[in-house]
Amino acid sequence: MSRAWASRFFFSVVAVMALAAVISGTACTRWGQPGAIPPSITPISSIFVNPTTGSDTSGNGTQAKPYKTFTKAVDVLAMSKSLSSSVTINLSSGDYTAANGEKFPIVVPKKVTITGTNFGHGVRSGTFVDGFGQDTIFEQLVHAPARSAYTTVEIAPGVSVILNDVYVGASKLKLPSSGAAYWSLDVLGTLSSEPANFGSGTVSKIPRASGVLVPGGTFSCASCQIQGNDFGIGAFSVTVPPSTAYPSATPSTSPSATPTGEPSLPSVTLTHSTGDSTIAAKVVDLITDGSVDVSVSGEKFGSRAQYAFEDSLQPIVSVPFRGAIDFGGGITESPGGNNFIGGRKSEILLTLLDEAISALDDTWNPSQQGADRGGTYKKMITFRSGASGKNVTILHAARGSTVIVGPAVVPTTTPSAYPSTTPSSTP
After folding, report:
1. Rounded to an integer, what distance in angstroms lies between the CA atom of residue 66 and that of residue 127?
2. Whether residues 253 and 231 fall in one domain
3. Is 26 part of a structural domain of the chain?
């Protein structure tokens, strides 16, 4: 992909992100207007929500009397002074829509575990958070125009969240202008998911609708399905204001939480345990600005994208070093096992200087750039600037950038310098 598309991403998809290095120290968003929260004698550990049988007025968040909306549960979480050290929001199966009372985006302001029901049976049978609203936190973070960014669920800065067994998307998406963009999930804090579906149900005809945005956050997903039109996952560094700028957010001990004035460096970790683990976008599955730490294993990259991975996002803040990218056998010890087959132009495109990718034990387009008919490399090959092909493309200007492919290195055992104290077995 050329630099022209990267510019289109920032000036169209992200609606003129005004490339500012100095980020405002204040921000606001829709925290909702929760009703009075009655004092609780016992710390809250579980909040139950049922969009069919629950009530936001007469419910109390117990399993017997659940709330009706996810929005209400988040408002209670934000306002409550009596929380246990581990809180879970339990979402029953059903459609969580604006018509049912949800107010989007749903911003998660405190550490919490959110779990859905009946995942794996599709949006009609599972927990489907379905809607969109103005992403004001992101707009202010990057000085983008108002009404230019929209999302469904947002993880606030400095907050650590677990989100499992849910579908997140917008089935009735209608953006206000050609310059506006949508992503189903915005990770400004830390999010771990296993499994989940992001971008589910999103209208495929909207070109600026994407899967997951990671501006300075930490995103870990095991066996997740991520869908988007422009991109599946977009990640880049920003300068995030302190969590005190967000009244309901609490400080996090996560490495992604950084002091004021320093870039928050994002990371993306994708693994595969059970079920589907796929990124499927129309333009690029995973795109970064070169500063992102990436570790991916067992992932299937969609066959409809132009590229599976590229590093061509124009930076928002200056970061003097490159992120570590490991698709197998690299610094994070990823076991590989990724499927790079079907990219319409190339699987990996590098455009920046000194970007190094390890991609061992993966499957590639067969009979391309030295790959055999099974799509594997029998020996290690290092692609450098000037490489151009169906599997790896590195621009001539990207001097010092490399992609290493091939079989994983088999570790060699080093004889111990000390005799064993374990007696040998004798007949």
Report:
1. 15
2. yes
3. no
In a domain, 36, yes or no: no
pLDDT digits (tens, 9 = 90+) for 34-43: 444 444 446 7
Helix (H, G, I), strand (E, B) or coil at 44: strand
Q: Is residue 415 part of a domain?
A: no
In a shared domain, residues 309 and 368: no
* pLDDT 10s digits, 238-295: 987 655 444 433 333 333 333 345 666 799 999 998 888 999 999 999 999 999 999 9
The reply to whether 280 and 346 lie within a common domain is no
The answer to whether 286 and 330 have CB atoms below 8 angstroms apart is: no
Higher pLDDT, 12 or 235: 235
Q: What residue numbers bound the domain in which 280 lies?
A: 3-18+44-323
For residue 83, give the CATH number of its domain.
2.160.20
**What's the pTM value of the predicted model, to 2 decimals?**
0.85
CB 368 within 8 A of CB 390: yes
Spacing of C-alpha 72 from chain mean position:
25
Cα-flanking dihedrals φ and ψ of residue 29, to 5°?
-160, 180
Q: Beta-strand (E) ranges in 194-292?
A: 197-198, 209-215, 218-222, 225-227, 231-236, 267-271, 278-280, 284-288
